[in-house]
Amino acid sequence: MSTHHPYLIPIQTWYEGAFPLDERRDFSDLVRLLSCPDMHLCALLNDDSLVGFILYWQWDEVIFVEHFAIAPNERGKQFGQQALTKLLELPFQYCLLEVERPVDETGYRRIRFYERQGFTLNPFDYIQPPYQPDKAPVPMRFMSIPALPDSTTYEQFSVLIKKQVYERFYKTI
Asked: Among 25, 89, 155, 165, which is most buried by a count of CB atoms within 10 Å?
């Protein structure tokens, strides 16, 4: 996807609208990462109409969903479910994503959505690393397919994601 692709403008709008500042990169930084072979930004289409996007990383047998959003006027039409179904057709041993801790109705609703897609909310408290050293870390939880069996596995994935998604880009962007 080139930096002038027509889908980037609506994706940027949804990205910045759906994720608070501490839970995302500056969009120009994200665009610069499109050349990373392990990062995938996929436009979600219904016929020829853009309805959302999913940004994920893939390493060996691990998929990590970093950001996933459906256009506000397209929610409730099964596009999110269809996108995850397609993503889960990729080969993986674990598929992980971060969600806000279940403290309000929005958080519970998001967790229930992912549970319906087969994800498990893991019991380990997770802190999303900051996207840049000057941004704040965010308390979250991992959801995964399959469930993480123990705290050692959780710690391994926590370190992998911290290094490959966050800290790897502190100085390069």
From this structure: 25
